[in-house]
Design brief:
Number of helices: 7
CATH class: Mainly Alpha
Helix content: over 70%
CATH superfamily: Winged helix-like DNA-binding domain superfamily/Winged helix DNA-binding domain
Strand content: 5-15%
Largest sheet: 3 strands, antiparallel
Oligomer: single chain
Number of domains: 1
C-alpha cells in the first residue's frame, strides 16, 4: 500500500531529486579531491576518467562524454596540459581536429588516485547495496530514454 507522499510524487519531483543528487555527488567528489591534495577539480577528473577508458579521442567526443561546452573543455584541457597530465595531437585523418592522450604523468596520477576513488565507490556500494544500485541505474536509464525521446 502506498503512502500519501508516494502517491503525490511527480516526474518533476524525481528530476529535481536527480539534480540535487548530482550536485551532492559533485560536491562530495570535490571534497575528496581537496582532502587528498589531488590538485585537480571535479571537472578535470571527469576528463581524466574518460581518458583512462579511451585514449586518443577527439576533443568533440570528450566534450560530449563529459557534457562540457567547447570553451569549458578548452580551459580544462589547458589546465591539464599545464599539469602535464594530457597532451593534444593533430588527428592524422583530419588535421582540423585534435586528439587527446593521457601522458605518463597522467597515468601516474591515475595510479595514485585510484585507491582513493575505489574506496569512495566501495563505501557507497556498502551503504546502498548492489541490488539497490542496479535498480537505480536501470531506472535512471529509463528516465534518460524517456527524456531523450520526448
Amino acid at each position: 500500500m502506498m503512502t500519501e507522499k508516494q502517491e503525490r510524487i511527480t516526474s518533476r519531483d524525481c528530476i529535481l531529486q536527480l539534480i540535487r543528487t548530482r550536485m551532492a555527488s559533485r560536491q562530495a567528489m570535490q571534497r575528496l579531491l581537496k582532502n587528498s591534495n589531488a590538485g585537480i577539480t571535479f571537472e578535470m577528473l571527469q576528463i581524466m576518467s574518460c581518458l583512462w577508458n579511451e585514449q586518443g579521442i577527439s576533443q568533440q567526443k570528450l566534450a560530449e562524454r563529459t557534457s562540457k561546452d567547447k570553451a569549458c573543455l578548452t580551459s580544462l584541457m589547458t589546465n591539464l596540459e599545464r599539469k602535464g597530465y594530457v597532451c593534444r595531437r593533430e588527428d592524422p585523418k583530419d588535421r582540423r581536429n585534435k586528439l587527446v592522450y593521457l601522458t605518463d604523468q597522467g597515468e601516474a596520477f591515475r595510479q595514485w588516485i585510484a585507491p582513493t576513488l575505489a574506496a569512495y565507490y566501495k563505501r557507497l556500494e556498502d551503504i546502498l547495496g548492489t541490488d539497490n544500485l542496479q535498480q537505480t541505474e536501470d531506472l535512471l536509464k529509463k528516465l534518460q530514454h524517456a527524456i531523450e525521446t520526448y
